[in-house]
């Protein structure tokens, strides 16, 4: 079994996943638009070019998302949840943290804690909360 986070965006999922691919060193391996849906699944015209599904692969890890359907009501940003990244090297944790924080807001600067060689929290430019963690060396 693999647990996978699935994020919803306010019409900018493709842009966000291009950003994540650069920050995390991954690759977008799937991109489907609402306009590609079969005719029996009518889509509002404003959704035709929006992302129905996008998949990012980083090593063995996967992150997926779509743009929120306008029929679901007004978009609301993620609350009370974070995407957590676990890394082995403090330098890589710092690099990824600072890359994701570009244009976003840092909630807790990355640094050493009593449980971790590096830990930090941020909300990226797309409103997605992240926690970056690197456990202490064994």
From TrEMBL:
CDD domains from the UniProt entry: PhnB_like (cd06588)
Sequence ranges assigned to domain PhnB-like in this UniProt record: 3-132
InterPro entries with a match to the protein in the record: Glyas_Bleomycin-R_OHBP_Dase (IPR029068), PhnB-like (IPR028973)
Protein name as annotated: VOC family protein
Species this protein is from: Rhodanobacter humi
């Amino acid at each position: 079994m693999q647990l996978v986070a699935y994020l919803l965006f306010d019409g900018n999922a493709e842009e966000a996943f291009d950003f994540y691919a650069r920050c995390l060193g991954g690759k977008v391996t799937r991109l489907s638009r609402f306009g590609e849906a079969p005719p029996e699944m009518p889509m509002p015209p404003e959704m035709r070019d929006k992302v129905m599904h996008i998949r990012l692969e980083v090593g063995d890890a996967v992150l997926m998302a779509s743009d929120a359907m306008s029929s679901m009501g007004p978009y609301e940003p993620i609350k009370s949840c974070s995407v957590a990244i676990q890394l082995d090297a403090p330098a890589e944790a710092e690099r990824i943290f600072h890359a994701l924080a570009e244009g976003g807001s840092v909630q807790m600067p990355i640094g050493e804690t009593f449980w971790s060689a590096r830990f930090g929290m941020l909300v990226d430019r797309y409103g997605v909360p992240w926690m970056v963690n690197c456990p202490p060396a064994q």
